[in-house]
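Exercise (ungraded).
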Amino acid sequence: MSDVAAVLELLRHPSREGGADMPRAVLAELLRRTGAAGGAVGVGPRELARVPGGGECWRTTLPAGRDEFWLELAGGAEPDPPLKLAAGVVLGSWLMREELKQARFAERRRLWEVESLRAIAEALGGTLEPIRLAEELVLRVAALLDARRGEVWLVGGEGWWRGAGSSGGATLLSGHTYRVAARVGGPVLTPEEAAKIPDEGWLAATRMALPVVGRRGRVGVLALAEREVRGGTTPFTPADLDTLSLYAAQAAVAFENAALHGEAVERERLERELELAASIQKQLLPASFAAPPGFEIAARSDACRHVGGDIYDVVEAGQGSVLMLADVAGKGVPAALMASSLHAAVHLLAAGSGDIGELAHRLHQHLLAATPANKFATAFMARLAADGTLEYTSAGHTPALLVFEEGRVEALHPVGPPLGLLPDPHYSSQRAWLPPGTVLVAFTDGLSEAPSASDGEEYGVERIRDAVVRLRHEPLPRLVDGLFADVDRHTGGAALHDDRSVLALRRSGM
Amino acid sequence: MRVETFELEVALLRGPLAVIEVGGYINNEAGEAIVATARRLLEEGHRQLLFDLKATRIINSIGISLLLEVLEMVMEAKGTLAFCSPSPSIAKTFQIMGLAQYARIFESRAAALDALSTPS
């Protein structure tokens, strides 16, 4: 094969080891053909290949059209013009091919960047799980910015990502919890560094980081380390930080959506639990009772929240039916739990207690032992005898009203402090006699203290008394509903500020 | 938490076929290991290189350029370069970056082995 043909033959293997050694192959062929011991080839200021040895080199140009290729051979050796032309053609072809590849790669890389931005928007919009969001984010960002390492931190005062799965511990710094949610390649920041990243971001040669800031403040930190190039790394640039900020802006929206979704799910769960609790409590508060012979009983309770702290019941206890209406201090779930406990205790203790005062005392001891120190309940309790005798006691409860048939009213005032409040109270048993037609109405302070819509004036015991006197001949359920309706008119139908309950009893006519 | 640590293993050598399992982040370091392995396998006479990407979720542009280098090596050796089980994201990346134009992409290793064992 001629010298020229041997050099041109190299064109048939354009991509040996990525094209990087084509200049070496050309140089080796020229050394072989000229017998030189060493030399170099290059283009412009750039040396492409060198074989040391042979002493001083002489430089000559290789005709290649656009590019200025040069050749240095040791010992004054020089290829003939056709061989130089062939070498120049091969190197020129190789260089154009390399440039074309690079241009095509750069063009495709830009397309890939655009696609990555679109894909991450889609991926971030497609999930509401914070850990998955963080994984998507770190994979996309590290890949796009050629970072060797990357991580996504989640930041929040209460750990808004709770329940999103566990992957590592969290660190509490300055009242905020920092936790690595996703990582690629290895660690980038310490928790202390993550906590100190300024709002505008942090750029160093080998690392950069940017906070993810939503409307409710900082929710995360994006961090990358070691920007790669072929064979090594190169410093991050402000343009890289700008690119990172595009992702941070998308991530902020996605993380906020995830947080809001998590909160909504949690609210929904609590709502379901409260509805269930309300349903259970409703079972404990029947609207009608199997009243003892000669009596009618009706009751109603409206809770100001899903569940309430008012409780009532009528318990058959051998020596007569025991009626109880109690109002646990506080509202909502804690009060409802205590009311349930009190309800169960009445059922357990009613039969074994001597007089009604003793029952009150035993209930007091139960509350004292089973509830926190600041929890107490007012209660009106009565035992009903078939002859119309009412044995009653009142533990700090608003006075129950006895309304006689002719309209006279007697208030049954408290005889002791609320249950569970003081260490050693005394509850005496009181007696009253209910002639036929007499109505007993016990109520909680949610009625008497219901504020007027116009000036906030409380409905008051006097208005309750007047309403019951006015309604005393109505069927008992209608009397109870009428009383509630009167309170509603007073408040203008405003939302309840406290639980409202009424337990009413009438001794039937002879 | 998956940290995407790079792993490479030649899982199968059968005649001209070599199956290489790749896991973790394909970046510069990983890409160079892939190039070196591909070169060795080609020198050993394996002309069908199948890279199983089941355990790979991330590749950067340096990793892609090194896979393009593997493609050139395989094409120069008149061989076949194939990938199987790429994630949707990586499959899209291969499409955009031109790898899918010359390399064969399969959804699963079974599909790849089936196709590569059938003379085309």
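Further reading is listed at the end of the chapter. For now, observe: The interface with chain A takes residues 1-5, 25, 27-29, 32, 35, 39, 57-62, 65-66, 68-69, 72-73, 75-76, 89, 92-93, 96-98 of chain B (CB under 8 Å). Residues 6-105 of chain B form a domain with the Transcription Regulator spoIIAA fold (CATH 3.30.750.24).
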